[in-house]
Amino acid sequence: MAQTLLGKIKLLVMATLHGLVDQALRSNSLAVFDEYIRDAERSMETLKSALVDLKVTISTLKARYDEAANEAARLDMQIDASLQADKPVLAKVGQSRLNHQLEIARTYQEQYDKQTATYNMLLEVTQVLQSKVEVLRAQRQQVATLLELVKSKKVIAQSIQDVEAIADNHSARMIEDIKTQLDQADARLEGASTRLSSQIEQEIGDSTLNAQLEARRQKLGLS
Predict the structure, then answer these.
(1) The pTM is what?
(2) Signed CA dihedral, 211, 213, 216, 220: sign only
(3) How far apart, in whole angstroms, are the C-alpha atoms of residue 129 and residue 11?
């Protein structure tokens, strides 16, 4: 597959709302709005399904870690008891078993930490995409009005600034409202989007996660 699901999600996360409006104006069409909303909603459906499974996995790993840690604590006490009873051979065997048990516990802890970090990242990605979709839906009709203005003036608009140049007082107020809404939303989401983009880039190298998400995408009919 030319582009993995995570790669596509990264593009959706990094897309600015102001940039999407400018793209709509350049193409003189709301298709870019509809495409973004459609892709974001499909991606969120896949992510929400993955989050359910990840939550189960995290719970299982936590339980296994607790079991391993409790066993390690039991062995630790047995070693002390063996030493106090002057049974060095038994203590040595117990220490070997403890070392192995600590390694098992450490492995579960590492897996738990990684899966928890991935869960939190995917959850935040879903929230960011949902926020962007909500803003685009709210602004869709106003942008449609801008496109009608551009068509009526028979000009080529590359950005909102181009539309401002041909706007009357009423339209200017609407344009200012659109810009304010978009700028506020972009500013609010900028930090999270940048950080999530970096995290997604790291996850793209994880063939396991990619395979799991791609398989889920196929199962949901989102290919």
Answers:
(1) 0.81
(2) negative
(3) 11
DSSP-assigned letter for residue 68: H
Name residue, tokens 């339980």: 63
Cβ neighbours around 222 below 10 Å, total: 15
Give φ, ψ of 29 to 5 degrees.
-155, 150
- What pLDDT, on a 0 to 100 scale, did the predictor assign at position 1? 31
Triad 114, 116, 121: Cα angle to 5°: 95
pLDDT digits (tens, 9 = 90+) for 119-137: 999 999 999 999 999 999 9
Q: What is the pLDDT of residues 168-211, one digit of tens each?
A: 888 888 889 998 999 999 999 999 999 999 888 888 776 667 77
CA angle (126, 128, 134) in 5-degree steps:
100
What are the residue ranges of helices labelled H in 154-164?
Answer: 160-164
φ, ψ for residue 2, nearest 5 deg: -65, -40
In DSSP notation, 103-137 reads: HHHHHHHHHHHHHHHHHHHHHHHHHHHHHHHHHHH
CA distances from 102 to 68, 78, 115, 217 (A): 7, 15, 20, 37
Whole-number percent of the chain with pLDDT over 90? 66
Distance CA 66, CA 78 (A): 18
